[in-house]
Amino acid sequence: MVNDATALPAPALPPASPDLGVPARVFDGRSTQPQAVVLHLAGSTLHVQAGPGQSRPYAVAQLQVGEAYAGSACPVRLPDGGTLWLEPTPGALALARALRQATGGPGRVAQAMARWPLVALALVLLVALLAWFNHTGAGLAARAALPLVPLRIDREIGDRAWATIDRQWLRPTRHAERCEALAQRFAAAVQAFDPAARLPPLQCRRTESAAGFNAFALPNGQIVLLDGLVEALNDDQLMAVLGHELAHVRERHGMQGLMRQMGLLAVAGAALGDFSTLAATTLAGVQGLAYTRSAEREADAQALQFLASAGLPAELWTQVWQRFAEEEARSGGGLPGWLSTHPPTEERLRLGAPSAPDAGANPALPAQPAPSGRP
């Protein structure tokens, strides 16, 4: 361990002179107490003299000379683990320069300071790399590592989040009978669309202050329709909304988003079979969840396929997003922004237009993506 000589009581040093050599302090690496010594440089050997007849030679090539800043001591690492501290005196600084030249010239810090344009360029490249990883690389890594994460982690995270959301923000629906009938219809449609799919539980709720014009899905597969949406849309139109949320559940977009948000820590844990970091995700982590543009486009395309499988026309998609556009322009959804799942865009209106490709034949994705973080 390199000790800081300036933080410890300093023994008295003899005055510097050509005859006496250069005074310094040495820490032997075993004790916290420094010892006063005198240094003599003879060719390629540095002699450290602690007293009469107590001189120890060190090959200069084996020394590690630190940086010397104005008004501060200069450290010199010894091959036996000790450290010399040269005081900021003219003689000591001259010796430090000589040792540094003999061991390879200026230290790394001094070299970097002398090459500040290269350092600045390296910083710019580092920032660009971090920006790329945040925008693209994290998503690619999360998508690649997603199959390694067991579904039980999705359920644990979603169950905890749902318990808090339902308790703090939501109230019982005023349309229990209709919601139950819709849940049965949705279950049958899911079975026809993908017999192997895990059936997501469907709940209807309202917000404390308003009915709420919204819908959302959690990593555990929980899908929630708010009363404002149930009141504004008919059952066929609600099936289009449920098809969109079903895609988020089937493709595990929620877990993928959490892994992207947590970055390399979650990806590395998944690769090593350690899911404790993901499993410890709290509501705060879910609050920061935002689906990517590609996830939203994938969910939109699957929603149209879901409608076709249920024997419903693609025009329902246009009707739904026209209604969303009207409601958003009027008042918004009534839930915290991080639960918003209804970005009305011209892209989505075009996707369900009569000129769009047949929904049952895997419709082409739109050229312009929807805003990031909004399903």
Provide the residue-averaged pLDDT.
73
Number of helices: 14
Structural class: alpha+beta
Question: Whole-Å distance between the termini?
Answer: 54 Å
Give the amount of beta strand, in percent.
Answer: 5-15%
Overall 3D form: rod-shaped
Order of helices and strands: EEEEEEEHHHHEHEEEHHHHHHHHH
| Major sheet summary line | 7 strands, antiparallel
- Strands side by side in the biggest sheet: 4-3-2-1-7-6-5
Low-confidence stretches: 1-19, 267-288, 332-344, 354-375
Whole-number radius of gyration? Answer: 34 Å
How helix-rich are the residues, as a percent range?
40-55%
Compute the number of structural domains.
Answer: 2
Please provide the count of β strands: 11
Describe the structure.
- This protein has 375 residues and is α+β, with helices and mostly antiparallel strands.
- The chain has 14 helices and eleven strands.
- Strand 10 and strand 11 (223-226) form a beta hairpin.
- The longest helix is centred in the middle third of the chain and has 30 residues, at 116-145.
- The two termini are 54 Å apart.
